[in-house]
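hi! just following up on the protien thing from before. the input was this:
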Amino acid sequence: MNAISIKNNQQIPFDSIPVLEYEQFLDYNTSLLHLDDNHCVNYYGIPYQGNIKLICCIANDKVGLINISSCLVELQKPLESFSQHHLAFEKFEREIHENFGIHFINHPWLKPVRYPVNQADKNSTIANYPFFKIESEELHEVGVGPIHAGIIEPGHFRFICNGEQILHLEIQLGYQHRGIENLFLQKKKLIELHTLAENISGDSVVEHTTAFVNLWETLCEHKTDGDLHFARTLAAELERIAIHTGDLSGMCTDVAYQLGSSVFGRLRTPIINFFQQWCGNRLAKSLIRAGKTNFHFSAELGETLKNVLDKFEPDFDEMCDETFGSPTVMGRFEKTGMVTNELGKSIGLVGMSARMTNINRDIRTSHPCNLYETLAHQPILKHHGDVYSRAQIRREEVKQSIAYIRDLIAAIPSENLNRKPLSQPTPNSFALSLTEGWRGEICHCAITDANGELLHYKIKDPSFHNWLALALAVRNNEISDFPISNKSFDFSYSGHDL
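and the predicted 3d structure came back as:
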């Protein structure tokens, strides 16, 4: 048996994961990605019995299963690269190389990813990062960051340009590596783990915390109550509305369309203010908790939210009509920052970045959790892979989320006043949780030891898959179009620099 197949939020004994010889491990997992229905949701290594155990998780989006396989390798032994067979593995292998010093033969771009404190090569620093260079008297380099205006987190963008035209962009992140995965092992109180999950990526509080609590309840073999499923689903769609609306504001700002910038920015406010009413925090911190809630969603909150949406929706529709009807806006959106379907499949895009190129990749449909199975979600797909496609997806997903929320609040479940307490996590087990954040697929994996304590915790934000798309999308664009391309993707620095 090459792999064990599990569903989203299913627990298995860690020892039940098949251990393959490396050649078989490589052939099996790379062959799976030849099929469009499959994609890699996680691939990482853990220290194990003096060596490194590699764990690869390949999701089949057609049948809703995740195929888990493993391989035990020696630290000093070079390995043939998965990435030479499928580029979607390149970032995963770079991380393994950085963490453990394993050299991957024929990897196309074996460079550092994050510069963690415990990296294998202590001589590798951000100061000596090996940027790609082209020797030419006609070309010039433009460096942006790592210090940015406003509240953007640190990241360095190195352009090689011919006049105003971008020939190449290299993106270097990792300036604020926080070691958050190790903190999950160090902190022992559940409230501390909740707080860590809420701070993985500040604009994805709901979905990262939901991934954690779904995973924790799975490890504890705890049956989740219906009102908790309801609250997590509702909060996820509210977060999607808030961030998509704010991003439309930012996109208008980057093309100097001040009306759209102001109105979309104003419309985001009542959505996040509703979170403040619900749980006391505009980003929904403290709302999602494993096995319980401190903030039941009442009928009164439902009526308040209905009124918020009744006022929001007509203004949102009108502003979208104005924005997408503006020739000056469309002149900047259309055919800017394009990614093709073929390229998207090659680099393993997820979430909105995949759907803009007609790649049907959405966890809410393929591996649904909470109430998404009952919502019968249909992903919104576009075909051109440009800024306009990304703007259209935001517009249509906001409308879709509003419809879902109206359906949900029409039948608000009662609070369970007799909840069963959480037990301890099952010893020697493995579990995986997938959620679909507004940005795309989030994956949390956990392994417990013989005492049921966390032995390993692995987090993957969708930005880990998708940052390369921005670097490739801006090629042959003018450098003045970089801000709008960047904002239209809106990837996470903190979600990448864990």
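The first helix runs from residue 22 to 32.
The longest strand covers residues 38-48.
cheers
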